[in-house]
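pasting 1-acyl-sn-glycerol-3-phosphate acyltransferase for the record, 245 residues
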Amino acid sequence: MARVRFFLFASYWMGWTALFLAPLAIFALAGAPTRPIRAATRLWARGILFGLRRFIGLDFVEEGREHIPAAPCLIVANHQSAWETLAFLVLVPDVAIIAKRELLAIPVVGWFLRRSPMIVIDRANGTQALRTMIDGCQEAVAAGRSVLIFPEGTRGEIADPVRFKRGVEILYSRLGLPVVPVAVNSGLFWPGGATARPGTVVVSYLAAIAPGQPSAEFLRGTEKAIDRELDRWRTAAPAGATAGI
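structre below
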C-alpha cells in the first residue's frame, strides 16, 4: 500500500509540475519578472506539500516560529530530505535559499528555481562557489530578504551528529546577521527515493544566535543546538529511517 501511495503522489507531482509549463512560457516571453516567478514557485511548492498530505498522509507543524525576527536573518537548518528544500519556499516565503546547481536540471522546476528565491552554487568550483554564495547572500539581505543554508552540504541520517561545512562560518562573519538554527525531522518520514510514510514533520525554530561571536564558537554552538533538538526524535526513529545521499 505504501508503494501505491507513493506512486500516486509521484504521478500527481509530475502532473502538477506539467501545469507550470504554460506560466513558464508566459514568464519567459515577459522577460522573467521576478515577483510573479517567486509567487509561482511558492504555489508549486504548496501543491507538492498538498500532494504529500493527500496521498502519503505526511503533514507538518512548526514550533518556535516567534524566534524568526522581522528583519533579515541567516537561517541554518539540518538537511535530511527533499521535504525541507520544498517546504521552506512556503514556510519563509521570501527567503533566499542556497542550493546546489544540480537542482536546475529538474525539468520545468529548474527554470523557476533559477529565477526565484534560490542562490545556486556549483560545489565543484570551490572558490568561485564561495564568492557566488557571498555575493548572492549580500544582495538578498540588501533587498530585505533572509537567507537559508543547509550547511551540512548533503542530506544525512537522523542518527548522524550534525556537522557543518565551513562556508557557513564565512557567511556568519560576512553578513553580520542573527542566526536562527532550525531542526527538522523529515528523515523519519521521507528519507529519499521512492519511500515515504505518513506522519508529521516537525520544523523547530530555535533561539536566535547573535552576530559577532568568534566563528568557532558560533559553529559549535549552532551544531549543538540543532543536535540537542534532534535528540527528541532519535530514540524513536524507526529502523530504516535514513536519508539518501
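The CA atoms of residues 3 and 69 lie 41 Å apart.
The chain is about 45% helix and 15% strand.
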